Amino acid sequence: MSIIHVEDLVKEFRRPRQYDGSFRTIRTLLTREYTVKRAVNGVSFDVQAGELVGYLGPNGAGKSTTIKMLTGILEPTAGTVTVAGITPWRERERNARNIGVVFGQRSQLWWDLPLRDSLWLIGKLYEMPRGLFETRLRQFTELLGLAPFMDTPVRQLSLGQRMRGDLAAAMLYAPKILYLDEPTVGLDVVAKEAVRTFVRELNRESGTTVILTTHDLDDVEQLCDRIVLIDQGAVMYDGGLDTLKSRYAPYRELVVHTNSQVSDVPGATVTRQEDGRVCMRFDPRLMTAADLIGSLLARHAISDLSITEPELESVIRNIYADRP
Ligand SMILES: Nc1ncnc2c1ncn2[C@@H]1O[C@H](COP(=O)(O)OP(=O)(O)O)[C@@H](O)[C@H]1O
Ligand SMILES: [Mg+2]
Predict the structure, then answer these.
(1) pTM here?
(2) Is the Cβ atom of 56 under 6 angstroms away from ligand 1?
């Protein structure tokens, strides 16, 4: 049985029409007309325990709204959400014990308290036995490098420090599921790496189920085996990262270093040629890299070459470019 089950999930936001100064809108205010925004439009997916799923899509696609329904913060307009056997918005407290949540844009910590006190309060709220609390606190302090800022009020922490504190707070009481909404947004390379290492470790060592939304596709490449891609509130792709690449970007790029003029290459398309480097694209299902390189070597003096897979970023750009 899946640990997370989402079926035909819909969320609409109703907002009174804004007053824009026209007569029409004054009437609108009196008659209370609404605009309806369908942020999530029939999403279905299942997550098995121990999976690490990337939930991706452009700005405004409905990612955060979905996460909020999974956490129980928002009640769906229609559809089903079951998380570890619980309907989150109906049993928010019971659900809260099973999940850890980190919103990159907003800290869950107490702004004026030192990190240490925030974590202690969370231990109390979740009624953690003292021994367990201390063991996990020690473990996370080490894993996330919290010691240098444990006694600093949260408001004074850098973004990277705060994010590490938030991760510790979210996982302290050992929930089975972790939701991460843009956890690496605005972080420097070192802090991003710390977040990724921590998430990977939790997933591998403790089997924590993770749903991650992010704009940083390096996060996805490094962490996720499976991705669910949404657009305008609906699922466009659900499957493995490799399958996504081979379906939407089956080509490879070959770069050769040569001084000779390379124009016509059977089985490949030259995309760029500059400073003794020639870039070409080929479809490995039609032409093997070995054959392509063989035919080039037979005709040109080549000093170096490399083959690259398409970047996830360009794959996803292609998918959205193709949409109706
Ligand atoms: N509380 C709200 N009231 C009205 N509209 C909202 C609210 N929250 C989100 N939306 C709208 O729903 C859509 C999806 O938002 P969101 O789930 O935050 O997208 P994402 O996280 O993928 O960027 C957007 O068009 C957004 O403006
Ligand atoms: Mg969002």
Answers:
(1) 0.85
(2) no
